[in-house]
Specification:
alpha/beta; elongated; metal-binding; 3 domains; RNA endonuclease activity; 13% strand; Rossmann fold
Length: 292
């Protein structure tokens, strides 16, 4: 017994394992038989230990994920992430005329747009409107809900661009220049359906900024609706477009229905998870490469 025990201990087995094997085979068993049983017993023990460790790690990961969910839900990130949201600069004239079907300067449209961004958590919202819009409504320049302009000005959201009269003629400063300049300097978002082509041709940096930071919109009755894909179907989502640092993961392309059997290679417009970021050659290209 002592010889067999010392032999097993030298191989790294414990005395408990040796006793289990001897109880099963008997004390007269040959060393080769004992060694075979010890190998089986060792493999079984390692497997059980691996399963136990795996289960423990899974439980720990699950509990950590649950704790993260409970501590920082997505809804709180959306409403309490004001510091990560970009400043908003609204083209007041464009929004008001759009809400008024290009016939009436509807101040209510400006209020609807401002409220939409404030409800999302944006703290820095600025509206530019020409100062002459404070004048009384005329048949050739109809204005509705004009008191909204005064209210937004008191809340330091709306800014009137300068205008004055010189010998009976109105001199108006270009409000679009105020809009683009403030948005560019504050690294914000321009809310307008205007393309600002004249200003884009003035400075290359303004052109790039207008191309990347212009947020278009639509009005459905009294509902302000910006697009979910401001820069097109392959661009960022609206949530990430309005943030300085995106926190909502972008949706991947639709998986290819043919999977690994797809013969389009890198020309396939669908998503192939097995390729990673590398384009995959078509089947024909693979056969040509093999033949060479």
């Amino acid at each position: 017994y002592q010889t067999k025990l010392e032999f097993a201990l030298k191989l790294g087995y414990s005395e408990e394992q040796v006793q289990l094997v001897l109880n099963k085979l008997g004390t007269d068993a040959l060393i080769n038989d004992i060694l075979g049983e010890l190998v089986k017993l060792g493999n079984k023990t390692e497997t059980d230990q691996t399963v136990a460790n795996t289960n423990t790690s899974v439980i720990r990961e699950a509990s950590s994920i649950e704790s993260q969910r409970s501590e920082s839900p997505l809804q709180e990130d959306v409403t309490e992430d004001g510091d990560n949201l970009r400043p908003i600069v609204i083209d007041g004239s464009n929004v008001a005329m759009s809400h008024g079907n290009k016939e009436v300067f509807s101040c209510r449209g400006i209020k609807l747009a401002v409220d939409w961004f404030l409800e999302r958590g944006h703290k820095d919202v600025t509206v530019f409107v020409p100062a002459w819009r404070k004048e009384q409504s005329r048949p050739d320049a109809l204005i509705t809900d004009q008191e909204i302009l005064r209210k937004l000005e008191k809340e330091k959201i709306l800014v009137f661009t300068p205008s004055r009269r010189v010998q009976g003629r109105r001199v108006v400063c270009y409000d679009d220049r105020f809009i683009v300049k403030l948005a560019f300097e504050s690294d914000g978002i321009i809310v307008s359906n205007d393309n600002y082509r004249d200003l884009a041709n003035e400075k290359p940096e303004w052109k790039k900024f207008i191309d990347e930071r212009l947020l278009m919109y639509s009005f459905v009755n009294d509902k302000f609706m910006p697009p979910d894909d401001p820069l097109g179907r392959h661009g960022p989502s609206l949530d990430n477009f309005l943030r300085k640092k995106p926190i909502v993961p972008e949706h991947k392309k639709q998986p290819c229905p043919y999977g690994k059997k797809c013969t389009y290679g890198h020309k396939c417009k669908y998503y192939h998870p097995e390729r990673g970021n590398q384009p995959q050659r078509s089947v024909a290209d693979e056969l040509r490469a093999m033949s060479r």
